[in-house]
Design brief:
14 helices, homodimer, 11% strand, globular, 6-stranded mixed β-sheet, two-stranded antiparallel ribbon, alpha/beta
Chain lengths: 456, 456
């Protein structure tokens, strides 16, 4: 009909204008929709106002890709190339975009001797006074149980390889589980407190800071991120160490006689909160500052210790050296423990898990059922480890599951196999769950009980 | 000279044999070295024997790539292609090799109605009796403070994208910090207890299992892995909920009047350990079983609730529907809290952090300083989120640092900026650390004190 009024050519022009107009209108609407979504909610003073904004931005995007957005995505891919900053696809995202350009720290004066902090000589007195003033924060939770803080951590940067962070995550879950069962608090560090003491030395400033900030803590338990608990039932024999200030896994002969650099392991150790420990940290630290000091110290350690390869000074070798060279000063308060695996080298443990399950039970803590399986050398957060990757990761999964089974059994589950992420029931649920026997006694263990004197 | 004795051709043959022989010998030696390293330690009975094996395997590989191994690596790259299972390079490793082929679960009878477990009708009595028998595991830590278990978790598989696990790690560190300060225990779940209730529904079987296994727990606090604490000083007002059994962030009008699917949020909520809660879980669960039930239930929810997009039934929509359709049964014990951000939608919070720092202080918990910033829709563990990746990750870093600063300030540090992983000092160390003012009172807060009656 329009043809007759306006003529065919004009009608077609008109129809084309109409069509284009519809497309233009659609684009306009969608642009507004996108802008509203991406601008966020702006500033609002009341929850009601907040909510309006929530509603507007939220239900356009939440859930399974509501219609307007799907159309928009298609538009985006078919029109000009979108800036990658608007991409919702994690696979396309370059993580390096998140790294803020940060200046190097100002170099310290190399002639100034390194110090962990101002010298403190009366910490036992300061701490004792504080404990007296603060009976609500006792350093012993019951007669046999000191207050313990387990300290671990990792870099604030994503791991250099994709699976590294996944294993760090499993490792901290593992520690959370053990510590919850045993009434131990956890501190996960991701801050480099002192740039000079980067890498394995970073634990020293951190430990000192935590001891001084938490006088209620009796023992600080340092544990590497590549160490996992594999005996959830083993309680550390605290009474054994009542006259000791430092407990590490190791052998007296290997340290004091052989001066072997792996005569002890600093990947899992207990340090009492006292003046002696502050002094030890001060004596331990000097080989740590990175650069010339650490490099030169490394050469000394390689020369002085048995079988040590050539590399910069590490905290473990330095501890061996410290104990050997200043034995009279430190040894009487150091316990080198080898009757259970406060640290257990993974290489000799992981292939025996099935054997352990067949022959033994949790609670032994030693070679029969190791307290800790420590994946030294695997370095899953880096690019390159000291062992084949497949072996490391498979064994870390097995160790994790071996420990996790002891947690799951409290709830009537277990992993389908030591290699499997999946779980299966070990018993049916009951309508009287509190009558079900707690086989390992981990649900409500005696050592978790806090008995402090009541106050009003 | 050999020429003259044996002739040129034979001499050359002989020389060639010698050369090949040397190479053969070298290969043989190196093969033995590698085999010894890779076979591990085998079985040993005593720590001394363990140690010998440690020494042999250990110092060949630990440290900065000792010589024999470097030669071996070069040989490996230049000779035939090595099996990737021996590679020490994480970048070359295909994570899928670790996935055990696992069969699908046997499908349940679709006609059999879903059940979270055997019906329990006397849980208050069972639990009350248990608490009486176990005074060492009280459900209140002091007059105002119930025993709380914070429950969170993630998939046992690595995230589909490289950075996902790193953000899960930061998120759990964040939760560990808040909970340590507030005397709350943490349970990190990585087990799928019921394959029918996968995805967002997995929390239901888990919550039920934990309530029934831990009668000492008064409140279970579920928190999504994409939610972070941003007010480390805010203590939940437990007395406000003394007559309530379920506390969620939300608005009464939006739920009961509008039936809006985002009228409440199930990403962070409190559930009391009692019969009412078991009944609620039973009433909540039926829309969850994956497949036909969940899909059909999704359609019902989209139809019945305001503004809900089309997708399978989710636990949050189902909760709205449950409260609306059975209001008389549940509402009197449900508290929809909006005076602080028990859940805080990230979109309206993250751009205001600097403003908050300038104008307010921790401890408020609300829009001025939100208790929780919840990154709904970001899905950093998946391939594709509902928002641009860069915005999500940058803001998650900022939220993490915003919360982390409140932890670090206890120790005299802070992040260099909300975007920076690095930290700087806010004060010099002191030789009298216990006299330093604890600005936010987080080091030894009153609400963390456990006051239980003493026993012998």
């Amino acid at each position: 009909m329009l043809d007759r009024i306006f003529g065919t050519r004009r009608t077609r022009q008109f129809q084309r204008i109409l069509r284009n107009g519809k497309v233009t209108l659609l684009c306009l609407v969608l642009t507004i929709v996108v802008l509203r979504g991406n601008l966020g909610a702006g500033k609002f003073g009341t929850p009601e106002q907040d909510f309006k904004e929530i509603r507007e931005t939220f239900y356009q995007y939440r859930g399974k890709r509501a219609e307007p957005r799907r159309v928009l995505e298609e538009l985006q891919t078919t029109t000009e190339q979108t800036a990658s900053s608007t991409s919702n696809n994690y696979a396309e995202f370059d993580i390096n975009k998140l790294f803020v350009d940060e200046e190097e720290d100002v170099k310290k004066n190399p002639n100034e001797p390194y110090s962990l902090g101002p010298k403190i000589s009366d910490w036992d007195e300061q701490r004792g006074e504080w404990l007296k003033q603060n009976p609500n924060f006792p350093n012993f939770l019951n007669a046999n149980k000191p207050r313990v803080l387990l300290v671990t951590g990792s870099s604030p940067k994503p791991c250099e390889n994709p699976v590294g962070d996944h294993y760090l995550l499993k490792s901290i879950k593992n520690k959370i589980d053990y510590c919850r069962v045993h009434g131990i608090e956890v501190f996960y560090n991701m801050a480099l407190l002192d740039a000079e003491m980067a890498g394995f030395w970073a634990k020293l400033p951190l430990i000192r800071k935590l001891l001084l900030s938490h006088p209620e803590v009796e023992f600080l338990w340092w544990m590497d991120s590549d160490a996992m608990f594999t005996d959830m039932a083993f309680e550390v024999p605290w009474e054994r160490y009542k006259d000791k200030n430092l407990v590490l896994h190791g052998w007296n002969e290997m340290v004091y006689d052989q001066k072997n650099w792996i005569g002890l392991n600093t990947g899992s150790f207990l340090l009492r909160n006292c003046q002696w420990s502050l002094d030890l940290l001060d004596a331990w630290a000097p080989m740590g500052p990175k650069g010339k000091i650490r490099d030169e110290a490394g050469k000394i350690l390689t020369r002085e210790l048995k079988d040590r390869p050539v590399f910069e000074a590490d905290d473990q070798s330095a501890m061996v050296w410290l104990l050997v060279s200043q034995k009279d000063k430190w040894a009487s308060k150091v316990y080198l423990e080898n009757h259970y695996y406060l640290h257990g080298y993974w290489g000799i443990l992981v292939d025996r898990y099935e054997e352990m399950i067949a022959s033994y039970h949790p609670g032994l803590g030693d070679h029969r059922w190791p307290l800790v399986t420590h994946f030294v050398g695997c370095k899953p957060c880096g690019k390159f480890g000291d062992y084949p990757v497949e072996r490391c990761l498979k064994q870390m999964d097995r160790a994790f599951n071996f420990g996790d089974n002891q947690i799951l059994q409290m709830y009537g589950f277990t992993h389908k196999s030591l290699a499997s992420r999946r779980v299966k029931r070990t018993r049916n649920d009951s309508s009287n769950p509190l009558e079900v026997k707690d086989e390992l006694g981990l649900l409500h263990p005696a050592y978790k009980v806090t008995k402090v004197s009541s106050s009003s």
